Prior knowledge:
Strand content: 15-25%
CATH topology of the domain at 2-134 and 163-193 and 256-265: Rossmann fold
Radius of gyration: 20 Å
Strand order of the largest sheet: 3-2-1-4-5-7-6
Helix content: 25-40%
Number of strands: 7
Structural class: alpha/beta
Distance between the termini: 30 Å
CATH superfamily of the domain at 2-134 and 163-193 and 256-265: Vaccinia Virus protein VP39
Bound molecules: S-adenosylmethionine
Largest sheet: 7 strands, mixed
Number of helices: 9
CATH architecture of the domain at 2-134 and 163-193 and 256-265: 3-Layer(aba) Sandwich
Amino acid sequence: xxxxxxxxxxxxxxxxxxxxxxxxxxxxxxxxxxxxxxxxxxxxxxxxxxxxxxxxxxxxxxxxxxxxxxxxxxxxxxxxxxxxxxxxxxxxxxxxxxxxxxxxxxxxxxxxxxxxxxxxxxxxxxxxxxxxxxxxxxxxxxxxxxxxxxxxxxxxxxxxxxxxxxxxxxxxxxxxxxxxxxxxxxxxxxxxxxxxxxxxxxxxxxxxxxxxxxxxxxxxxxxxxxxxxxxxxxxxxxxxxxxxxxxxxxxxxxxxxxxxxxxxxxxxx
Length: 269
Ligand SMILES: C[S@@+](CC[C@H](N)C(=O)[O-])C[C@H]1O[C@@H](n2cnc3c(N)ncnc32)[C@H](O)[C@@H]1O
């Protein structure tokens, strides 16, 4: 994420930079975004407005802020991104950069293209919309079990009610930007590679988020995804921490995430 934030090209501006982080979650991007504001603004007079609809997420993000000593630069709010975008375009308090990481996707919004339109409308002329995704469904979380991983991915998509195709598919971020009238729509890839045993952050992510999510998806939608009894039993023994075949004990395990950054520029005047 740090490399993606650092790679965003911003228009030349004499004004203090105004940045919006939509769906900030635990605030993982705030330190990186604040560094961009500091680098572009004199006297620390820029701002990162960070919003999330979930008050618990904002509380967690507040702890991050205290740890990073960013209270002066960051304005944390419990809010719906639609309200912030509408306020920005109505009051002229538009943003130079709007950042979204894994927020705009069809599990959260029936019409993600409309969300991108709303965000594009909250940019200053020449401002940048940056839509980042960790690209969960094209990542390698079960290397060495590729067929099973494909089936589990389908089960997970079914669990989240994600479309397999069509205009609201989660891989259409660039299309939604173009449809919103943004120019210079560009895609870059920032791969993350880690050993499952050697990298504590990767290990925590897999153990606490990914493997349990896969296990739940197999239990709830494995059959609908085309898994037979043997597939379900094999997935269960690989994903159960109490099993001798648990993937967490594989000394050669690794994870690859080809994270994606889409950027587009507002041409509105
Ligand atoms: C998958 S999390 C991503 C969090 C963070 N950006 C990250 O990359 O780790 C998506 C976040 O978007 C927030 N969210 C969903 N709908 C929202 C809305 N309408 N307005 C603001 N935040 C929203 C959720 O509460 C959640 O914290």
